[in-house]
Every structure is written in structure tokens, then in C-alpha cells.
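Run log, item B.
One chain of 307 residues. Sequence copied directly from the ordering sheet:
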Amino acid sequence: MNSILYLILVCLLVAPLSAQRMPDRFVVFNPLFNADDNLPDDSTAYIHSFGGFAEFASYAIKRDFEHAWNQKLGTFVEFFRTGSSSSLAFVGNIEFVANSDNDIGFKPRSIFWEEGFVYTRKSGDNFWQLGYMHRCKHDIDNYLYGKERALIFGSIQGKFLTPFDFLEEQENALFTLRGELYTIRQDYRYPNSWMPVNSNWKQLIGSLGFNFNFTKKLSSNYWNYYFNSYSMVNFFSKNEEFLDRFSSFQKVDINAGIATGIAIRGKAEFRIGLTYDYLSDTGINPYPEKAHLVKLGVFILNHTSYR
């Protein structure tokens, strides 16, 4: 446990670098967390379960010009489950960003989208996941600004999830290792004079990251404390061609963040809290921009499938 906490601390301290923006970066999805949906061994069920999460927040504490409001939505549909050991699900998540540059202080700016298929396999007390995620980003209402950035960054994704006991509670914590190998990579910018400016997501090779999330009961009833964190190391090539990316190396970048607050848990979970997020390339404007962001928001999730 000490080594895990040390790794988290190191990654958060070196966070002021950069990486791409993923809507699911703070949460970990796994339909096999929900033991109530398990089946007898060798038994298979189809369209077996579904769940999701939703968040709405204001960057009222620390923001930049492009970030005033933030909304996230995520869902999954479990196509099949076999016993308590394997599952295949379709997953979809979006992140919406608005600035305050209009008369009502709410101007839609960008949307980040991801969807894909995830296969989950249980091994002892741990879980393995393998899937493919298609991701894209598009501008909204950008005609007044005369600039545009469209991103596509699909990847083969692998995860290792290990639940464990923490702060004298059983399996209330989760450590997740995450790897991405990027296949489709597009970074379209207008005006195109910004194309040579790094970081260019066409040069992405892969990513390695982790999540450390836990909850702690504050009373015997509904009240809990929650803590979610992530960090991701990203590898960029000097080249853009698919195979040529692996023949050169340009740099390593990092993203990181922490979310914490109070949770009220019943059959679902309602959270209210603060989130710090560092993005040195927000992905919004055609030139890379860094941002230290702190938001206050509410978060609702299916806690049996999301941590």
C-alpha cells in the first residue's frame, strides 16, 4: 500500500505537463463489481445490465476563458455476462464544456465524445479489461471566433483493476492501471498555421496511467467521503505515420487530477464536491493551451458498476 500511495504522490507532483482529455478519466467502470447480477457458473445472459453517471459543475473557483461550465454523461449496456467471470459491454461517455462569453454567461464551446466495447475478465480478486475506444472532439458555436480544432484519438485499451481494503473498510478502494495504444489520430486545426505547434495529437503513440479511488463511511447510514484521482503518462513520436511513430520519440507528457467530497449512498450515489484538473492542452483552441481548473459540482452514479 505504501508503494501505491508513493506512486500516486509522485505522479501528482509532476503533473504540470500535458496529455489528452478523456471523459472517463476520474471514474473506473466494471459491470462485474455488481455481484448481485452474477449468474451460475457456465450460465450466460444477454443484455444483462446497464448503468451510468452524470455530472454538472461550475468552474467557479479556478478557470480560464474557455471553462465556465462542465457536464459529463456516461452509460454502459452489458451485452452478455457468463457466470461471475466475464462480461462484454458497450460504453459511451461525453464531456461538454461551456464558457461565459454571451449575455447569459453560458456559451456552449466543445464536446468530447467516446464510445467502444469493453471485455472484462475476473481473475481471483482482480479484473482484466480489454477493449477499443473511439474518441473525438468537436467545437460548438465557434463561428464568432474564426478558429476550430477537431480531434480523433481512438485506441486499443487495456486495464488491470485490483480492489482492496483501505482505512479499515473492506474492498472500499480500487487501484487501476491503464494502457492505451492509439490507432486513429487526427488533429485538425484552423487556421492551419497552428498545425506545426506541439503537442500534436497526430503524433500520439500510447499512454500509461492509473486511478486510485476510495470511499469511507462517515456514519452507519447514508453518508460517505469519496476520493477519486488519476494520472496518465503519454508518449509522443516525432513522426505522424502509423508505423513510423515507433521509430522515433519526441517527449513524455502527464495529466493528473483529484476529486473529493461528500457522498450520499442508497441504491444510487449522489456526490457533491470539488475537482482539481490539470490540462496543459485543453483540446479546445487550435493552439495547445494549459489550464489549472477547479470546479464545484454534483455527481450521480451507479456505485455498483462505477468507482
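Observations after the first pass:
- The longest helix spans residues 2-13.
- The radius of gyration is 19 Å.
Flagged for discussion on Thursday.
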